[in-house]
Amino acid sequence: MKVPLQALSDTIEAIYAAGPNPERWPEALERIGDYFDGEGSIIRFYDTQATPTFIHPEKLRSAVTVYLDERWWERDLHAQRAIDLNLRGFEVMSDQTIASDLEIQTHPIFTNFFHRVGLGWLMSCLILPDRDDLVVLSVPRAKAKGPFTSDEMQTLSLLGRHVDQALRISLCLSNMSSMGTALTQALDAFDTGVHTLSADGRILFSNRAGRVQCDIYFDERDGCLTAKVAEERDRFEHYLTTAHRTGRDPAAPKSCVLTGTDGTQLVVWAMPAGKVTGLGLGQGSAAAILVLATPFLRQSQVDPAVLRDCLQLTISEARLASLIGCGLPIEQVAETLGITVGTARNVLKTVFRKAEVNRQTQLALKISNLGRIALKASGDLGGFDHYQAFAGGERADDRL
User: CA–CA separation, 40 vs 52, rounded Å?
Assistant: First the structure.
């Protein structure tokens, strides 16, 4: 049989093992009960306005079930006296300190509940004293084993401090997990693919849209993100490596366009994860690269940032080119951008020069070819149907 000091050391070790591994709390609570020759131990969260919750070992499951099913918390002398006595952190109460001999002999918690579930005595230590609800570590023991001694109560106060610290770790991890779940659900609602990668390109996290994109645009080779089309793999992997190396470059990230197995294209932006402060995605490794991916065409209009990168335009030039790519006449483009028609024509001349075209129809076709997908109707913006109406011949406003 272990000497008491060794048994106490083993019990404390089990408590701290449960802190970062909450699934081990039942084992730790059973160890605490064994140390006091009890029937296990429980952690109870008691709120006068709600049903209490428990962490307990398997051997106390039936007792906890009866307690909850029959609403014994409404008649629990121990919980009520703990509140009435306004116990402070790590103070310990037992049957003898909160109840009279007559109450121990006649109160239903002793004569009914304890008797039916095979218990007889209880001592409890207040833990997490800064919380609004009452949280106690309780050790129940069979009637035949006798009441708890003052020495045992002092030892429970000692163990209660260790349980308090370990339980705070578990609660913190639980809150972080809940936050991570909420963040994942929010990212899953995006229609933009989001991936986080480790420094060596391993996938740590992908949202729902990102996982769908993997079917068409990406491959996962040895856990790493790479292009689906073999001819584009070297270029894409070099792009990711460059993005990681330019972690301190304040410039906006450049885009990369990938071709899918269906002939469509995906615009990808990669940036060091350090630029996105506090983005805690990925398990088991620190996120080093954040990858955002979206279809080349969205609502029949190419993202101006994509045209800026592909055609080496300024963002103002790219905004105008994006609208021209929808088939809009120059007058409507000027009105949309809030500039004069003369200014719009001057900007368009620069766009023509950089894109190496001479007409709006040629620019729209070049933008269409960049995406490898036909432009679709875009409602109020005129769209491809409007563009087709004059694509076969010159319009008066087609030339500058």
Answer: 18
Q: Which two tokens stand for residue 1?
A: 């049989």
Q: 192-207 burial, b if ≥16 CB within 10 A, otherwise e?
A: bbbbbbbeebbbbbbb
**Cα diameter, the chain:** 105
What pLDDT is stored for residue 371 in this prediction?
52
The two beta strands, 289-295 and 255-259, are unpaired
Distance CA 319, CA 376 (A): 19
What's the token pair of residue 5?
Answer: 């000091």
Q: What are phi and psi of 65, to 5 degrees?
A: -60, -45
Q: What stretches in the chain show pLDDT beneath 50? A: 1-3, 248-250, 275-285, 298-299, 372-400
Q: Which two tokens stand for residue 214?
A: 């993997």
Tokens 């009435």 correspond to 84
Tell the burial category of 174 from Cβ atoms under 10 Å away from its Cβ (0-12, 13-18, 19+).
exposed
- Closest C-alpha among 67, 204, 200, 58 to residue 122: 67
Where do runs of H (alpha helix) occur along the chain? Answer: 4-18, 25-35, 61-69, 77-84, 95-98, 101-106, 108, 115-117, 150-188, 208-213, 233-245, 304-311, 315-325, 330-337, 341-355, 360-371, 383-391
- Nearest residue to 205 (alpha-carbon basis) of 228, 223, 217: 223
Phi, psi torsion values for 38, nearest 5 degrees: -100, -170
Q: Are 18 and 28 in contact (CB under 8 A)?
A: yes
Task: Single out the residue of 208, 62, 2 nearest to residue 13, CA to CA.
Answer: 2
| Integer Cα distance of 185 and 276 in angstroms | 18
**Cβ-contact 253, 247 below 8 angstroms:** no
